[in-house]
Amino acid sequence: MSIADVVSRPSPIAGLGLFAARDFTAGERISPYTGTTTSQAPTGAPAHGKIYHLEVTPGRWLDGSSEDNPARHANHACHPNAELIWDEQKSTAWLTASQPIAAGAEITFDYGFSLADSLFHPCACRAPDCIGRIIAAPLRPALRRHLRFSRPRD
Ligand SMILES: [Zn+2]
Prior knowledge:
Blueprint: E1 6-10, E2 16-20, E3 29-33, E4 36-38, E5 53-57, E6 60-63, E7 75-76, E8 82-87, E9 92-97, E10 106-109, H1 115-118, H2 140-150
Parallel strand pairs: 7-10
Antiparallel strand pairs: 1-2, 2-10, 3-9, 4-6, 5-6, 8-9
Bound molecules: zinc ion.
């Protein structure tokens, strides 16, 4: 991995996105996702509405907001092409391709948000079945039920 492997530029999903500067094969490491880790869950709304606090392994959060984090602009998507994999030995999170990624494609991963977090974070990934919230894939059926029951009756 080198800096030239990825590039940050405006994204159709949100703000700046992270884009592949070359092809990646499935399973290949794309970029480290660097920052400080804490065992404290983040509280309150993220600064400037941006999201960099991620639970990288159960009970451990990583603050990727530093400008030194080469992958900080990677957006969430309902059908991501990468995942964040925590390397316990090196205490480093890696954005890793979960499928082949072509040069020029936007690199996305599942932020893994809880149901409560998701209510404050809209998703605009443009997938036909986008659930409209940033939420961990296993929790989406629960969110669908929640949205159905909270919809005003006509
Ligand atoms: Zn979406």
